[in-house]
Amino acid sequence: QxxxxxxxxxxxxxxxxxxxxxxxxxxxxSSYAMGWFRQAPGKEREFVAALVWSSRVTYYxxxxxxxxxxxxxxxxxxxxxxMNSLKPEDTAVYYCxxxxxxxxxxxxxxxxxxxxLGTQVTVSS
Length: 125
Prior knowledge:
- The chain is mostly beta strands.
- Helices cover 0% and strands 51% of the residues.
- The chain has no helices and eleven strands.
- Strands 2, 4, 5, 6, 9, 10 and 11 form a seven-stranded mixed β-sheet that branches. The protein has a four-stranded antiparallel β-sheet with strand order 1-3-8-7, with no helix packed on it.
- The model has no long low-confidence stretch (mean pLDDT 95).
């Protein structure tokens, strides 16, 4: 079992930056990939970014390419999402997920077995 805790959300002005953290605990050695999804009120959950743990290969949703960067700290079992050039449409609850196996695309929710409770990001205009 893996426990995930997101942090770093908050209120930021458009054009600003924010860094989210996802701290993992438990049986983290079995993790294949970790990803970030977001969900705005009344909208579907959207893929944001993912990282394959062993290879460090990263993936990004089209809406965040060039603005967001996913990275990791092995020693801390933590994944980060650096968000730059934030836009009001980035406002959402951001969720961190951990997947044990490559059962589906890392761009899909089905890939992930564990989820954090989310952290709110609000971008004002």
